[in-house]
Amino acid sequence: MLDVQRKVVVEEFKETCLNQPYGDAWHHISDLAYKVHPYQWPTIGKVPKHVEDATMEDVKSFFFNYYRPNNAILVISGNIGEDKARHLTEKWFGDIPAGVIPSRNLPLEPPQQKLQQRINRAKVPNDALYLAFHSPSRTHADFYPTDLLSDILCNGSSSRLYRRLLKEQQLFTQIDCYLTGSVDPGLFIIEGHPAKGVSQKEAVKAIWKELEEIKSTPVPDRELLKIKNRVESTLVFSELNVLSKAINIAFFELLGDADYINQEVEFYRAVTATDLLRVANQMLSPANCSELYYHAQEA
């Protein structure tokens, strides 16, 4: 069974990371951005050999170290009473013994001191570029202004990068901005595909021009309110689905307090234009950036 699953995962690695255009982007980005923290390791492994070399002892050790009731968070969401929920939980999980959970002492990634760059010549349809900035952890107060910054830059047709660089100047055919939202400090990513005839140098220069503007000029109140309203509506609608609610509660409990689910909207509402300016200047600098470029080659 282990041999079969090893082959399945190796084929998944080849299909999604090696054979799919830009599929290895996160392998390059995590290698550029992280030198100490385990986030440098993609979940599937850095190379197929990491999967091929997994032994039965490796698998058993991992399972019995981490798949223990005292290392689990169970959320039951839906039309069920507390008594029945407790009864079924005891029935299905009660006889599983607890374990000794390894302590989680992960090394802190030191501040990045200089621009990291990598050019990857690959058989991809078009050139592409990625800018990755170290960003706050999910529990840090600055996560919320950072998240709003990503939306102001590129969330929807009226966002800055989409409207100015894609629609008006037609420098890109695709552009996006998002956070990894990692438990430990993560990454703030801008990715784009330059339009035909637009050099990567010209494209990345246009992105940096927009970043310098958001670092020097406060976001207007109307623009900030608009993006806050969008975030709030997304959060409210996500709670209408019982599965989404259960997942969110479990995640916030993992972060330390399930009640965060009731406080998130207020955290976003409290963000000011001054907060955005401060966070942008702290984060969006060349020294804190890892740039990855794909140069398309003929197949």
Protein described:
It is a single chain. By secondary structure, the protein is of the alpha+beta class. It folds into 2 domains: 2-93, Metalloenzyme, LuxS/M16 peptidase-like (Cytochrome Bc1 Complex, Chain A, domain 1, 2-Layer Sandwich); 116-296, 2-Layer Sandwich (Cytochrome Bc1 Complex, Chain A, domain 1), CATH 3.30.830. The protein contains 12 helices and 5 strands. The chain has helices spanning 2-18, 25-33, 48-52, 56-66, 82-93, 143-154, 160-168, 200-216, 221-238, 242-255, 264-269, 273-283, and strands at 116-122, 128-134, 172-179, 187-194, 289-296. Strands 1-5-2-4-3 form a 5-stranded mixed beta sheet. Strand 3 and strand 4 form a beta hairpin. Helix 6 crosses helix 12 and helix 8 packs across helix 12 (273-283). The longest helix has 18 residues, at 221-238. The radius of gyration is 22 Å and the shape is globular. It starts with a helix and ends with a strand. The model has no long low-confidence stretch (mean pLDDT 94).
